[in-house]
Amino acid sequence: MFEADRASLRGGGLDRKRMSKLKLSRWPAGPRVKPARPRRAAYALPTLFTAGNLFLGFLAILQSFEAVMLAKAGHLGFNPHFRLAAIAIGVAVFLDGLDGRIARLTNTVSEFGRELDSLADAITFGVAPAVLAFTWGIAFVDGELGHSMGDHLRRAGYFMAFLYLLCGAARLARFNIQVDPVPKNPGRPDRKYFVGLPIPAAAGLVASVTYAAGSEPLEWWPAAVGWLGLLALLSVLMVSTWRYRSFKDLNLLRPRSPRSVVVLGSLIYLVWNYSRPVLLAMAITYVGSGIVIRIGGALRRRFRPGPPPPAEEAGSPA
């Protein structure tokens, strides 16, 4: 049959267009190759990090309660339960930065994972730091203030801890519904920013202060008042529209320069050997970066020279 077609083509019986259609009809195209979808097991990987994040928040809450019971028994010095609660929140901050990146790298981003991550953040970086902040910074203030002033201080502690939790939940809700939000003071277009202080950073500062203080509960009332002021500041920053660097534009798979390798290695060494001051400095630097950038932008706009007055046209009447 094929020989007859070729003979007719050579004899002019079939033109080339008809021959091409004949070939397409006899040799159908193969099946279309669909893009490979990730295996179901790949979806469990970021979920495991989120579950670990949630467990660490639950552990921090339990350890805060254990610390209160130990301190009520008369051990007001170093409290290992406060230390473990602060470390659990700090590790959860690290894990929270990994689950999203792993989901994007493995192409397993889903609505279920996004909602689960948000609920886990509300517990680990909202409830757990609020409980730790009150039990460590307010519950054991000495009785120099008297019964009345001490009661007012505890009530203020309840309110500030709840305000922190409320603002953190509002920050998470705003993050979930906004698409490509723009901060009030937009930065460089080639970088990505958060609008408002992220709740993991706020929880990291609460945990780093507790950890750096030697995990001994506060007993001096001026320190407790300052602690309440810090909680109020974190609450306001979380619901603000000031910009904070998100570092989502950093590609972990891209080759790094020798300078970045040296900086990363030095940071790991410092955290391992001087964890208390280094972690506290890192948390303060990040939280304070949004304040410094905002103040700097306001000063630049205030002292920026205005446009020159328009020049008078030649020949205009005096």
List keywords for this structure.
318 residues; mainly alpha; 10 helices; 68% helix; disordered N terminus
Protein architecture, described:
68% of the residues lie in helices and 2% in strands. It has one domain (42-301). It has helices spanning 2-10, 16-26, 40-72, 80-105, 111-137, 146-177, 199-212, 221-238, 258-273, 275-303; strands at residues 193-195, 243-245. It has 10 helices and 2 strands, in the order ααααααβααβαα. The longest helix is centred in the first third of the chain and has 33 residues, at 40-72. It has 318 residues and is mainly alpha-helical. It has a two-stranded antiparallel sheet with strand order 1-2.
Order of helices and strands: HHHHHHEHHEHH
Total number of domains: 1
Largest sheet: 2 strands, antiparallel
- The average pLDDT score comes to 80
Principal-axis shape equals globular
Strand order of the largest sheet: 1-2
Q: Determine Rg (CA atoms, Å).
A: 30 Å
Query: How many distinct beta strands?
Result: 2
Give the termini separation. Answer: 100 Å
The number of helices is: 10
What percent of the residues sit in helical stretches (DSSP H or I)?
Answer: 55-70%
Summing up helix and strand content along with how strands pair, one would put the structural category as: mainly alpha
- Strand percentage: under 5%
Low-confidence region ranges: 1-14, 19-30
